[in-house]
Amino acid sequence: MGVGGTLISVYPEELTFLFELDKPCYCNLKVVNNSEHHVAFKVKTTSPRKYFVRPNASIVQPWDSCTITITLQAQKEYPPDMQCKDKFLIQSTKVAASTDMDEIPPDTFNKEADKVIEEMKLKVVYTLPSGGSDDSSVSSLGSRSFKAASDDLTMLKNASIEEIQTIQRLKDERDNMLQRNQQMQRELDVLRRRRSRKGDTGFSLTFAAFAGLIGVLVGLMMSLIFSSPPSTA
Asked: Can you give the residue ranges of the MSP domain (predicted)?
């Protein structure tokens, strides 16, 4: 099921994420243009730091569709009773056919007297990998999470100051590399869209190879961090 307006329809009508601790979760959203006009849309959320939306704004051609990927960043703890109060808002409006999808004017979604801005609200739902969301499942998962945290605390107590500083430095480097990798992926997606739309044959695969190398380095760094715990004193 989906929700629809005069300009666009959105499927599904709510965003469902398969929630797992310390892992990013993904959900796809399909935007369908119901009109003979070019329609621009923009995605907003009440928790912008928790979610990564790609693309968060674009233009859909008449009777065409677009798929949005929404990523819930890795979370350190379960929400109370697995309930989520986050909301998403999708705004849409008609634009000229000549409007560049990568350079949508910033005032496109301003509410003015002669402009129609349609809005649709979507709620967020979290589900567990086992398919159940009862209290016993959440309690069990919470107990396992607490035990893992206790083990980590014991390990840190037995580690020297130098080892703790090394672990923290490696984690900081990992986080920085992950952020750089996400930025590279966003830039690569923009270049791909421009190449597909304008037929730019000058795009080099060197950039894509470099982005892939960054991903491999991130994987190696994460493997080094989590497979080599500090020795006990």
From this structure: 7-127
- Chain position carrying tokens 């190696």: 220
Residue 13, burial from CB neighbour count under 10 angstroms (0-12, 13-18, 19+): middle
Is residue 102 classed as helix, strand or coil in its secondary structure? Answer: coil
Q: What is the DSSP letter of 82?
A: G
Instruction: Return the ∠ at Cα 143 (arms to 137 and 145), rounded to 5°.
Output: 105
How far apart are alpha carbons 80 and 48 in whole angstroms?
Answer: 20
Sequence-distant (≥ 6) Cβ neighbours of residue 173 within 8 angstroms:
221
- Report the distance separating Cα 71 and Cα 124, nearest Å: 12
CA terminus-to-terminus distance, the chain: 58
